[in-house]
Amino acid sequence: MTLTKDHIVNSIHTQLDLPEARSYELVESLLEIIKERLEKGEDILISGFGKFCVRHKNERRGRNPATGGDMMLRSRRVLTFKCSPVLRDKING
Q: pTM of the full predicted structure?
């Protein structure tokens, strides 16, 4: 099952007994802070959860899967996630 933003808002609303509108504002604010930092190229470390890292990938040679032809893939930034040992232990039981 996919965890959606709506599920998160409802969980906060239920667990913290906050109004649903306030729960939505909290989730939106948190996600906006995370997005702003990632856009700036900053890493985000959430203790007990993991680390989101912005990595730079250089231009490289690739292949078009539809035609099989060679092409150059432009340089870009990608987002990676490395889970914390605490989360890894919970996932693996």
A: 0.79
